[in-house]
Amino acid sequence: MSRPLYRGVSGVRTPEHNHDSWESHNKDKLDKEDLDKKGSSNHSSLPLKSPLKLLFSDNSHSKFGTNENGYSSDPLIGTARSRHKLVLHLLKCSLVFLVILALAGSFLWTVSISTTSRGQIYHGYRRLQEKLVSDLLDIGELSSAPSKMKELEFCSPELENYVPCYNISDNMGLGNSDGDQLDRQCGPELRQNCLILSPTNYKIPLRWPTGRDVIWVANVKITAQEVLSSGSLTKRMMMLDEEQISFRSASLMFDGVEDYSHQIAEMIGLRNESNFIQAGVRTILDIGCGYGSFGAHLFQSQLLTMCVADYEPSGSQVQLTLERGLPAMIASITSKQLPFPSLSFDMLHCARCGIDWDQKDGLLLIEADRLLKPDGYFVWTSPLVNARNKDNQERWKVIHDFTENLCWEMLSQQDETVVWKKTSKRNCYSSRKNGSPPPLCGRGYDVESPYYRDLKNCIAGTHSSRWISIDKRATWPSRDNLNKEELAIHGLQSDEIMEDNESWRTTVQNYWSLLSPLIFSDHPKRPGEEDPPPPYNMLRNILDMNAHFGGFNSALLRAGKSVWVMNVIPISGPNYLPLIHDRGYVGVLHDWCEAFPTYPRTYDLVHADGLLSLETSQQRRCTMFDMFIEIDRILRPEGWVIIRDTIPIVESARALIARLKWDARVVEIESDSHQRLLICQKPFFKRQAN
């Protein structure tokens, strides 16, 4: 477990107490305890409930009072009493005069106060207001779920790989079948209010790129038997020993993935896979990706491949792919739309992915068409393509005919692989024979915010202003800078994006200057790792919980960080997810009152900019603490959390985070006096061996 975060960082002010005064603090504490003991012996029956009671308390103990020796005063004193009255009268007059003089001076000072001074006073008043709001938020959170916080414990061993919302047995009990039992079913009753421990033999993953090809067996729920029972291609791509799984996709000794990707490029009409970028391909959706080797190979060509696969209780494709530092998420395409906007990907890939595209009256192919950009490619590898028996040939004919109705052009077929190209011409749909199905969706059909909706039996996106051929879009990395016309589609101006990019450039520099000394002082080098040029390889999988325009993702890549970012757009905020996909990144819509579709321990860094303010400003069915428990679930041991929000929110979050046993500190943002950073690190807790 890493050491507490008490190190300073140059250029950053930390409004914390001085930890070097620990000894003096303990001395004051001992003095206070001595005073408390003395006070308790003399006044144990008189607790002090309010400082106002002490200020305005009546000191008289009898009708006439007592002197310092305890004797009663004589009520029949004549001349002396008159003199006392005169003195008291003069004192009262003097007090009134001083009050009048003070009020007059205060009035003159107020009149002469400068604009700058007024701003300082207002700023002080603003800080008092924020402190009050922070206190109220703390009270609200603590009062809304006190039992959750008090009863928070470590989860049982069977929940080490638990993913909320995916309970196959419960779904089958509801009558779901034919693949629907894999569907996502979320509800507040499914939330687990406990902290998930790491497996007994869990080890911190190797840094990228070593971790792409070598992972620890104990970190994923897969056995040697499951590896041996997998397909022949999978077995050839993996080597399993007692502690590690090695992938040979990048090895010169194994060229299966390289030959396969080279074949696809030739079928499209390209020289090799390195020319995908020139053909307009940047983002690829890999459905049923196996263990991510296709995306791992294409990463060196600057192609971003998002793996989606069904939830699997063991031997998960998604879990293993994320462990390798590659983009992946749990998603089923059986009955619901995926949480991506329409026209999002340049290529869809399905190699023995287990999807029966001929089933459900073509609904699955319609969903694939929805996700594909105009002139995008659909690559399918299956024994059905080269079938010999009559039944499989009939199934292949159904798929072939239906793709024609979708206005897909079949470019090539080789062995078991076929490549289609989606049309970019809208008039193709009106020229179909006899109005062939499926019909076009209406103009009012919202295709930008599909959050696990039922599959729709109509072709979407044809009315969208984002209907732009990938051939006419800028190639990567120029695609990151959308032109004026493309930005206007999203209601933005060029100067807005430029300002956002510059802001995130500075922010990322600050993040790295803060994290680098902390990470590399704790873990300068682990066994089997190369010496990374700091801070290049210290993080790989990043989750941005409130991605806005995708500026954080863009700034990381511009700074040369070898990372990938899952950009998440909360359904409670403005939807800029289509913009993020148009810029050449990947992301999803998500409701943060529900579990994120991933396995435990899959992200190195979780980033939340303004998310807590967004969520707490609405009437939500979950608390801030519920979101923190979910972050803890998906964060790797020794992983990092950066919360960037208003001062009251950050202070409230810090009070709640203490329950999670995270190491945390607040960092002041120099350029913004109303915001703070909360930097947290998750400790390395793992289950002890029996």
UniProtKB/TrEMBL annotation:
Q: Which PANTHER family match?
A: METHYLTRANSFERASE, SAM-DEPENDENT METHYLTRANSFERASE
Question: Its principal location?
Answer: membrane
In Swiss-Prot or TrEMBL terms, this protein is called: Methyltransferase
Enzyme Commission code(s) on record: 2.1.1.-
Supply the alphabetized keyword list: Glycoprotein, Membrane, Methyltransferase, Signal-anchor, Transferase, Transmembrane, Transmembrane helix
Residue ranges crossing the lipid bilayer per the database entry: 86-109
Q: Which InterPro entries match?
A: Put_SAM_MeTrfase, SAM-dependent_MTases_sf
Source organism's superkingdom? Eukaryota
- Provide the leader sequence positions: none
Region annotation (Disordered) maps to: 1-46
Which family does the entry's similarity section mention? Belongs to the methyltransferase superfamily.
- Which GO BP terms apply? methylation
Q: Where in the cell is it found?
A: Endomembrane system; Membrane
Can you name a GO cellular component term? membrane
Membrane topology, record value: Single-pass membrane protein; Single-pass type II membrane protein
What Gene Ontology molecular function terms does this protein carry? methyltransferase activity
Compositionally skewed regions (Basic and acidic residues) per UniProt: 14-39
